[in-house]
Fold each of these.
Amino acid sequence: MLIYWFLPMILFLGITTSYEDIKFGKIRNKWIILAIIYGISINSILFALDYHSLGYLIRFFLNSLLSLLVGFIVWYSSLWTAGDAKLFFSYSLLLPLDIYSLNYSKLFPSMSILVYAFTPMALFLITFALIKTNNRKKFKYFVKAFNLKQIVNFALFLFTITWFFNLFFNFLGIENNYIFTIFLMFLIFLIIEKIFNIRIIIFLLFLSFIRIIFDKKIFLLQTWKSLLFALAIFIVLRLFLLILAFNAFSKNVKIKRLKVGMIPAEAIYAKGKLYRKRKIRNFGLMGIFHSITRTNKYLFNLNAEGLSRKDIENLRKIEAKLSYNTIKIQQTISFAPFLFLGVIIALMLGYVHY
């Protein structure tokens, strides 16, 4: 198996970056550069020894370029750091295409790594949030989740977006992974919800009407079973676990004790002569869209790299004008170990397949 050419570097990269991400909260560029050089060199040697065909090499590097692009998009969306994006790209250069036993995409096989990484991470975060939150608050948040207006919005959104997703995935030759699909739909809903605000129902009704005209599958029982299941997941994610996660993974930190790299769970903005705070439950894409569309701009940028030295200096300058001296900070989760776990799962499934 070709994987044995890459396994030493995969294990070295995974163990080293996981340890440093947990210990120091960073992924050093020298390990990324080493892995990239190793991956390109070994693949070039294998091509020279006729282990790889030219067609294989083209598909391999296309997959790696897509990994780089996807990593950049996720980083730009503030859903992970630049180090995580570069680490994902490095892994794509170290895994032969034949190791992906379950190809979620023929064009982009490395998407499997993301599925295997995000799924256990999501389960970990959900379990931790449920354990850390007392039963009284759980019940309170659960009751709030069953809001008729929100449920109608979710139902209309899922009715339209699942159709577009199926068409899009079929066009790219991607098998529909349920967990990954719901994750993407969840992000899209957060964006649409903010852009259209109250008018979202009108927009979704229009899209629903289009589907009713052109999609014959709406008359199948399986279609409605899938929609109801996805709706239940959306309700739990959007209105229950999102609130739980905010409270479980954030803590108050005094402004004078803020450090570079800390990620705010609250935004501060000027309104008249006062400085107010608002919770950032929808960190990442939603935080960016919210900050762009607001009349009153935030005093610091919302991104996965956290507060800069300039941000902290600006906050300390106005501290005397504030009616509070603390700000909620997100407790970050090291993603490198989960990315390494995603690679290990891909390797194990590939080995079983062989």
Amino acid sequence: MTDTATYRTTGTKSKLKRRCADLPFFLVMSGISSCFILLIVLLLAADLMFTSFEDFRAAVMKPEIQSAFRLTILSCTIAALLSIWVATPLGYLLSRYRFPGRLLIDTIVDIPIVLPPLVLGLSLLILFHLPFGNWELEAWLRDDIGFPVTYRWPAVILAQFSVSCAFAVRTMRVTFDQINPRAEDVARTLGCSRGQAFLQIALPQSWRGMIAATTIAWARALGEFGPILVFAGATRMRTEVLSTTVFLELSIGQLNAAVAVSLLMVAMAVVVLVVLRVLGTGLTS
């Protein structure tokens, strides 16, 4: 009994020493982390303290802002759906296969993520208006197809899609990396083609990742500003979305309205992040 009590006492003292030794580590790590968290909380608190409910209500009741809200919901949703439509096969190919040029394609996919937003918008504008002899993409779409893009609502969707799709591809690649390909290999030995193995085995297992990728793409499209401003413009009741609304309200000195719209976007982003946390946390389950 004495030896047991001595062992327990010694073990308790050792644990206390380890905890005391670890205390500076946790204090430093927690202090650094708390600085960033405090900054985000202070930013949100400053916005809430700056405006009032009456200012917020007056801002969101403006016809221009309501139109921008509707276009934002529509464009972000379309951009997110297009993103997951492209990201699923591309993420699967990058995850499962090693082929010539794979590294180059992997690098190209990341370009919209690291490229300055204004440069991306300018590149889209040049692409649609660059003359190839007597042929121009925007003129062809406008005159022959009857579907102009530049400085109209399709340009908003294309600008959002160009950036959000890259994030969706990254998410889907990680998703397929975490899915064991053994079941697909077994299905192929039993007579399934590659397409059948993908549709019947891999795709059903990736549904959580697809939800996460779609949510991330939607949230990224919501915050897009630079490419939209350059490629689609910021024409009220036409190509205005919430991100450009903040810019327009600031440019005419309506700071209260700009802050109100910012809070509306924060609320939308919080909802999206909650959905991502609830439905997208099971990537590894």
Amino acid sequence: MGEAMGGLTILFARTARAVCARFARERLLLVLAAAFVILLALRPGEWSNLPALVDWNTIGALAGLMLLSRALEDSGYLERLGRALLSKITGERTLALCLVAFAAVLSAFVTNDVALFIVVPLTVGMRVAADIPLGRLVVFQALAVNAGSAVSPIGNPQNLFLWQVSGMGFLEFTMMMAPLAVALTVLLLIAVPIGFPRRAIAVRPPAGEVRSRPRLLMATLPLYPVFIVLADKGWPVTTALALVALYLCIDRRVVAGTDWFLLAVFVLMFLNLGIVAGFGCVATLFAGVDTWPGGVFGAAALLSQGISNVPATLFLAEFTDDWRALAWGATVGGFGFAVGSLANLIALRLAREPGLWREFHLWSVPALALGTAAALVLIWVF
């Protein structure tokens, strides 16, 4: 009995040390946690309202998609698909153009987050098969889904929200967003030759047989549409918990390999933003946003750099009905800092590439400047 208790104590201690070591490497999580403590100290009566500040449906949807994409990656078939694609596409620039265009188009139909959960694991699988610039490809894919998803009312969460509250028809909203979405996508495609040379891709022979798990694949593929439908019906949390239970039975490594720290980042973002929105001076400050220099467009683009474009849209919609300026500003605001769009954070975490944050900003900050300029020109033209 004593030996068993001693073994459990050692296991617990090792697990705790591993979690603390991982937590120490999560800089964004540490910053958000520190901000949370400070904000709670400023508003000590907020404790009882904390659970209501979190959009648990968003957290559940993210958790479910993370589990599914991890299972798909662990099945080994993404590497197989990557090798098949690399046998057809032999140039680095051509590969980048195909992946960027695919991500942009896909995001208009299945939302930007879901598109990333498909294209980024596929790209990671290609990295196993060949020497490709994984980090830069993922950066361009993140920018591509921000641009491509803008054209559709269902392409991203802020568009879906604005489409509902504006009362516009589907086609009317699409026509409103099309000029900006097309311009941003074209600018990104023009940038591809700058970031990717005409270099041939050398495909490595597999080190032994490519391990695949057909049972895991066959269990996961049907779950994608099922999860999306159930999440859309309002049951993402329940469905995500069911997925956890299912994968604990099928393959526990899927659950263990899922990036649960990313969920903690999103929860803290919701908490911090909800507490800040409760300060009366904040609402007073934004009451005249229509008359600010740059107007609603500038406010949305700028605010997105600090709190992300979806919360910025939800917040500013309380103070304006200039839906085009708000939608365009939130779209452009998805570029710039990584926090500008939740899709950026998802892409960076899925890639699991050291030093990727620096490379992301080397491309995304200029994209913010060019996107802002393009939007201002289009506003003047139209």
Amino acid sequence: MRKFLAIYNREVKSYFSSPIAYIIIGLFLLITGVFYYLIVTSFVQYCMRADMQAQYYRMAPPKLNVNVMAIRNLFQNMSLFMSFFLPMITMRLYSDEKKTGTIELLMTSPITNLQSILGKFSAAVTLFLAMLAFTSVYMILLFIYGNPELGPVLTGYLGLFLLGSSYIAFGVFFSTLTDNQIIAAASTFVFILFFWAIGWVSAMVSPGLGHVLSSFSLIEHFEDFAKGVLDTKHIVYYLSFITMGLFLSFVSIESSRWRGR
């Protein structure tokens, strides 16, 4: 445990002692903030038009759900933005070690490869959690000025956490394959995009094949979380995805050790 914490603390300090963490968090909050403003403004305007129309026709105003019409859209957009920002978090984890030559010190130290991988993965997840935590301000404002349901908000954040952790796990893996941070980030992004595309293709093929493809899609499993539905099969899927990414990272590092580089 002490060795894991040593790696974890080292990586967390490297994030927050440089501009990397602050730039990524700032840009993520900026773009999510812009979409939050646009989505909520659109929802408020729709509510006003619906109320005016109801008054004109002397009808009861329709019941409009802020979770369905605003929060769900925000979560879906956040899941997309994460695919751009999280590869920036993971690209340096092992690529930088290889480029600077410190990977040899890491491999010959008493720290095991598993401890190293879990420490780096946990540090990246910590930065990701900080990104999500700051977006809770948007939800707090909605609870102050509106009446959203808490359940779908919590499940939405759980879904974002599992989805982002899946991105990070494979980001760690691609970082072990190269000493070029740009290549590591680009490879992670293409990989994420591929599993997004599976969901899009599933709607264009036969129902049987479409069901199989959608079961592998990262974003299809997130949809229920955004709707407030907590299904264990989606949790198992993401945990399996994370485990696979970390396992491949372990195999890649072990392979590098046996090859002597």
